[in-house]
């Protein structure tokens, strides 16, 4: 059985089987560490939160969700993306409160070139500004906001997002392009 099918089967079984949850833990933790590493690459270099800690915190929050019936691995990774975003935002708020107006946590713009297309930019984006922009985008178009969250924080592909949202990849691709343009305009200093 390939790992995709195995993870999906274990997630479905984990809804009612303790052994499946136990077998699933190392697989999911490994995947979460990869997602967290990817998310942390976007953070400033002196960030105080480490990818392993972020993954461990996300894992504890995810496995503690007794009321979630996992539908498939994409569903799990979608919830993981939301959890990681919330953890990063909470960390930024806590860090900024301690500094009382000092430097805010920032994401490296060069790794966010998917918002601009073309050549990567060297500018940083404030985590809290991105969060506020995503909340504003959510008011305008919830699906576009969710697509950004799943792609940026969860590392999901267009196809995986389409499957999760039960829409066509073409629709996701179009929404992704529109959301990128909107975020680029919203987050760029001269935008």
Characterization of this structure:
With 191 residues, the chain is mostly helical. It has one domain (3-187). 68% of the residues lie in helices and 3% in strands. It has a two-stranded antiparallel sheet with strand order 1-2. Helix 4 (73-99) crosses helix 6 (142-153). It is globular.
The ordered string of helix (H) and strand (E) elements is: HHHHEEHHHH
Give the strand content: under 5%
**For the largest beta sheet, what order do the strands appear in spatially?**
1-2
Give the CA-CA distance, first to last residue: 49 Å
Radius of gyration: 17 Å
Question: Helical amount among residues, as a percent range?
Answer: 55-70%
Low-confidence stretches: 108-123
Provide tags for this entry.
single chain, 191 residues, mainly alpha
Short description:
The protein is mainly alpha-helical and 191 residues long. The chain is 68% helix and 3% strand.
Helices and strands in order:
Blueprint (H helix, E strand, L loop, with lengths): L2 H12 L3 H24 L9 H13 L9 H27 L6 E3 L15 E3 H14 L1 H12 L4 H8 L3 H19 L4
Antiparallel strand pairs: 1-2
């Amino acid at each position: 059985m390939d790992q995709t099918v195995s993870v999906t089967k274990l997630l479905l079984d984990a809804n009612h089987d303790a052994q499946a949850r136990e077998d699933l833990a190392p697989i999911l933790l490994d995947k979460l560490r990869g997602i967290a590493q990817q998310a942390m690459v976007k953070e400033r270099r002196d960030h105080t939160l480490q990818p392993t800690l972020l993954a461990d915190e996300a894992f504890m929050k995810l496995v503690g969700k007794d009321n979630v019936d996992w539908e498939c691995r994409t569903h799990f990774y979608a919830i993981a993306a939301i959890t990681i975003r919330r953890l990063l935002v909470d960390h930024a708020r806590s860090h900024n409160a301690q500094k009382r107006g000092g430097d805010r946590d920032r994401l490296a713009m060069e790794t966010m070139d998917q918002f601009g297309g073309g050549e990567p930019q060297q500018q940083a984006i404030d985590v809290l500004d991105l969060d506020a922009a995503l909340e504003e985008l959510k008011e305008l178009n919830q699906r576009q906001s969710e697509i950004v969250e799943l792609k940026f924080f969860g590392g999901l592909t267009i196809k995986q997002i389409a499957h999760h949202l039960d829409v066509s990849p073409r629709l996701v691709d179009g929404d992704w392009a529109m959301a990128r343009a909107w975020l680029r305009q919203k987050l760029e200093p001269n935008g």
